[in-house]
Structures are given as C-alpha cells and as structure tokens.
Write a structure and sequence with these properties.
With 402 residues, this protein is mainly beta. It has 4 domains: 17-117, Immunoglobulins (Immunoglobulin-like, Sandwich), CATH 2.60.40.10; 123-212, Immunoglobulin-like (Sandwich), CATH 2.60.40; 217-305, Carboxypeptidase-like, regulatory domain (Immunoglobulin-like); 308-401, Immunoglobulin-like (Sandwich). The protein has 1 helix and 34 strands. The strands form 8 sheets. Strands 10, 11, 12, 14 and 15 form a 5-stranded antiparallel sheet that branches. Strands 17, 18, 21, 23 and 25 form a 5-stranded mixed sheet that branches. The chain has a 5-stranded antiparallel sheet with strand order 28-27-30-33-32, with no helix packed on it. The longest helix is centred in the first third of the chain and has 20 residues, at 2-21. It is globular and about 70 Å long.
Length: 402
C-alpha cells in the first residue's frame, strides 16, 4: 500500500510539474516539401490573455523575446511559458519568407510552422530594405506593409493588385516586397515590437533603404464609473489624422483592476483620439498629443457618463424594401470616431448613449444614400449634421437611390 501511494504521489508530482512547466513544442517545415528547415529560429513575438483583454502591451510580457533554434529534425521547445497566455510565434530562416503563427496555446500540442521559400521575382521589381533599432541592430520580425504605391504622378492606397501585402524582417532585419512596375515606388508602414510605428516613403527598386525605428511615446490614464475603477475595458488609440498617407494604425489595450491603462510605443508628436466603448453609458473621446520619444503624457480621467439619446427614422425610397441590416453611424466631426446602431425593419433606430460634439449621420442601406431632402442636411458638408449637445429624438433620414 505504501509503495502504491508513493508511486501515485510521484505520478501526480510529475503531471503537475509537466503542467506547470507549460513548454511549447513545435516543428518548422518547408511549406512545399514538408521537410524540416534545420537552423531556423523561432521567437515568442507577442502574448495575449486566454480570457479577457490585455492590460499591458502584447510585447511586454516576460515570455516575449524568448527564442530557440530548431534542431536537424526541425523541432524546437520553448520552456516554461505562462499558462494563462497564448502566444504569437515568429519563425525565420535563410532563404525563406518569415512567418507568424498566431494565438498558440502550448497545451494544445505540437505546433507546425510552415515557411515558404523566397520568391525568385525579377530583381528590378523588388523593394528591399533593412529595419534597425536605435542602436543600429537589426530588428527581427518587424512587419513591413505597403502604405502607398506611386507610379508617375499618381498614388494609390489600399489593396493594390501586384503589390505584396506584407513582408516580415528576417534575422538580419531584411525585408522584400514585389511591385508590378520597375518604375514605381512604394511607401511602407513599419511596425515592430517595443518600437514606434513609422511610415517610410518612396522606396524604389534597386535602392535598398535602411529604416531606423525609435522608441515610442506613452499615453496613460484611468477609467471610472460613479467614482469606481472600471477593470478590463478596452481603450482604443487612433490618430486624429486619418489620411491614408499618414495613418499609423489603431492600437488597443485594456484597463487593469484599478481602471488604469498605459499604452506604450505610440507615434511621437502625434495627436491621438483616446476612446473606450462601454455598455450602459458613454465615455467622451479625448484628443491627446504625445510628446517626444520616450516621454509619457497623462490622458487623465475617462469617466462613464449617461450620454445623449439620438433616435429617428430612416425613410426609404418609394418601392424599395428594407435591406436585412441597415446600419446608422454617428461620427464625431473633430475626431472621426464613429458610434453605430442597427435600424429595425420599420426604419427606426436609437443610440441610447451618444457622446457630445458636432456629429454627422451616415447610413448603410444597399444602393440608397442620404438625400439632401433630409431635415438637418447641411449642403456645405453634404451630410446630415446634428447639434453638438442635447438629445435628438426626431431625426428623419430620407434616402434616395444613387
């Protein structure tokens, strides 16, 4: 009996130790042949809570930055990861495109990362460069994505045919993107863990660019409802300048148990709209200007308020049936922040908690658009404009076919 108990205790101890260690096992293979990619490196790039939203930046967890080199069989093991988190992994190897594998849970078993051999695209259409940190060292795993394609005097934004959607820097900090025309040029948006995002302009084939990233700036603050902290609430940060050529992206972080938030590595000397959607009330968005590199600014208190009530009716063109879903958006003119709701089949809609401030009303209803015959329509804006304060409960949105 004593030996049986001892064996059981040892078994439980080993099981507990294995569970507590939370090692991550994986393989790195060639995407085409499924053969091992010996010598590849695997990095823990970012981490996220299994439950809820992170109250710290995804790259700030202690496990981030851990790395392992795969063996001759393509296998790797990263030891003792936090069991409350899931992880984004990055694999890099000479001759291959780097690759991310998202939201990996070590407890889900062995993960396989597939690497694609680098394209042999024509060198005269290849945009190349190197991303380095403030010390001049290569930045591994930076994402480099097209921000604007230039050909002649024209600039195109968005998803452009023939332009690679993304490149990830390798162990030397190198990236490569293919464009459709050797006479073209590319603006790129560069993002890297623990550094500020940056837009680099007019990269041309045959002219390798060295892009130096800097530490970012920080915005902190706190959220309260009725004088008490609001925990676990996602807070959003987006530049006030939403022009495609300048937009660095939107960033999110959650408040901690004390209602505090700290968003690091934002663009220096930029004005951000800080907002936090919440049920049962509204938090008035704030404009906050970041300082220089490695400085912090306090956004102060973001208090949950009742908000104002915006309600009305969508009037469809004669003979038009109501689309399955009609979206109504209220957009704050000064901040480009939108608050949306869905209209019912009878065209009625209501926003129970809308923020103050001059706002325009936008409707998505198939091929119909807001008509100038709508009350509150401002011909100078070309939109319905509602007052900056007070409830507005009799709004009528008249639609016309395009």
């Amino acid at each position: 009996m004593g030996m049986h108990r001892l064996a059981l205790a040892l078994s439980l101890l080993l099981a507990f130790t294995a569970a507590a260690s939370n090692d991550l096992h994986g393989l790195v293979v060639d995407d085409a042949s499924a053969k091992p990619v010996a010598g590849a490196h695997v990095y823990v790039y970012t981490a996220f809570p299994k439950i809820g939203t992170s109250a710290i930046c995804p790259s700030c967890y202690r496990d981030c930055g851990k790395q392992e080199t795969v063996d001759a069989e393509g296998a790797f093991r990263i030891e003792s990861l936090d069991p409350t988190l899931v992880f984004d992994l990055l694999a890099v190897a000479d001759g291959y495109e780097p690759a991310f594998t998202r939201k990996v849970d070590p407890k889900s078993g062995t993960v396989t990362i597939r690497l694609r051999p680098r394209s042999s695209a024509d060198a005269n259409r290849l945009i190349t460069g190197t991303v380095v940190d403030p010390d001049g060292k290569p930045v591994i795993g930076a994402t480099v994505e097209p921000n604007g394609y230039r050909i002649g005097n024209r600039v195109g934004y968005g998803n452009i045919p023939g332009v690679d959607k993304l490149s990830i820097t390798n162990a030397k900090g190198e990236f490569a993107l293919v464009i459709p025309d050797p006479t073209g040029a590319l603006d790129v948006r560069v993002k890297a863990r623990s550094l500020a995002p940056r837009i680099e302009r007019k990269l041309a084939p045959g002219q390798t660019r060295r892009i130096a990233l800097t530490p970012g700036a920080t915005i902190s603050g706190r959220v309260q409802r009725d004088g008490k902290p609001v925990a676990g609430l996602p807070v959003q940060f987006a530049q006030q300048d939403r022009r495609s050529e300048n937009f660095l992206g939107r960033f999110d972080i959650a408040t901690n148990d004390d209602g505090l938030f700290v968003m690091t590595n934002l663009g220096p000397d930029e004005t951000y709209v800080v907002s936090a959607p919440i049920d049962g009330g509204v938090i008035e968005p704030k404009l906050v200007k970041t300082g220089a590199v490695e400085t912090s600014v306090d956004a102060g208190l973001l208090a949950v308020e009742r908000g104002r009530r915006i309600a009305g009716t969508i009037v469809l063109p004669e003979g038009m049936a109501a689309p399955p879903k009609m979206q109504v958006a209220l957009v704050l003119s000064a901040m480009s922040v939108g608050f949306t709701t869905e209209a019912g089949p009878d065209g009625r809609f209501v926003l129970e908690a809308a923020p103050k401030g001059k706002a325009t009303v936008h409707v998505s209803a198939g091929d119909a658009r807001v008509s100038p015959r709508s009350p509150w329509f401002d011909p100078r804006e070309g939109k319905i404009v509602i007052p900056a304060e007070g409830d507005c409960t009799d709004l009528q949105v008249v639609l016309a076919r395009e």
